[in-house]
Amino acid sequence: MKQIFLILFICCSSFGFCQTTNEVRSVEFELSIGPIFASNHNQSKQTNVGAAAGLEGRYNFSQIPFSIGIKSQIAEFNRRYDNNILIKNWAINTGFTFDYHIRKWKHISLITGAGLGVSFLDDNGYSNNLYSRALSKEKTVFYFNPHFGIEFSQRIRLSAGINLADKEHSFIGINFGFIIGANEIPSILERRVRRSLNLK
Prior knowledge:
- This protein is mainly β.
- 12% of the residues lie in helices and 60% in strands.
- It is globular and about 60 Å long.
- It has two helices and nine strands.
- The chain has helices spanning 2-14, 185-196, and strands spanning 27-38, 46-47, 50-60, 66-80, 85-104, 108-127, 133-152, 156-163, 171-181.
- The longest helix has 13 residues, at 2-14.
- It has an eight-stranded antiparallel beta barrel.
- The two termini are 37 Å apart.
- This is Outer membrane protein beta-barrel domain-containing protein.
């Protein structure tokens, strides 16, 4: 978890964290991370706080406060059962996102939306009742992800939502996202190359 936050901090620093713009970018990308919490305990006696990381590319319409995108996310949290079984619940979610900007100010925007797609699930763990035994189960389901959030200067997005899949893999998540416009990438790469080659 600490390594993920460190990577995001480095990315923010490298990509010009303090740059802001009031123009609506047609295409942008968002790198997000954050904690997740199982939405129900099922038969497990304990669930641990997990983590999720995602990457989204989206298109912002210029005439209406609406955007569509494609997002991939990986999420993981643990469940411990009474019979001394520990299961790691993994999910890789890939699908479409739809966002609507409820209200816009100069540097702040309130957002609500939803995601819909396919979740590839992989559960693995072990049992220690009589002997150590590996456990594994894989399946694919659809998910629905209503969410809301607040965006600062088209650069930082804080959001929360619930990822509804099956009972074992549904979770509530809080996301911290860093946004970069597609038109910024070439100049950023150029600066990085010049810096590495010691060019002015």
